[in-house]
Design brief:
The chain is mostly helical. The protein is built from two helices and no strands. The protein has a domain of 44 residues.
Length: 67
């Protein structure tokens, strides 16, 4: 009775506890570290590029806080 109340009419407990999104959840867990490190690399690159262009940047590209 609870499963029919929590889901769309007619689905009930047949859709399971993940509602069909388990592939997206696992894909997100797999890709999250790669996307995060790419963002950090891009931020460090941008910091170095802006410093070479003469802008004052904070944190510097080679500071430990930048990573």
């Amino acid at each position: 009775m609870v499963s029919y109340r929590l889901t769309a009419p007619g689905l009930g407990k047949d859709c399971g506890s993940t509602f069909g999104v388990i592939r997206q959840i696992l894909q997100g867990l797999f890709l999250a570290p790669h996307i995060t490190i790419e963002a950090l690399k891009g931020a460090i690159f941008c910091s170095k590029l802006m410093e070479l262009a003469g802008f004052e940047v904070s944190p510097k590209y080679n500071e430990k806080e930048a990573i």
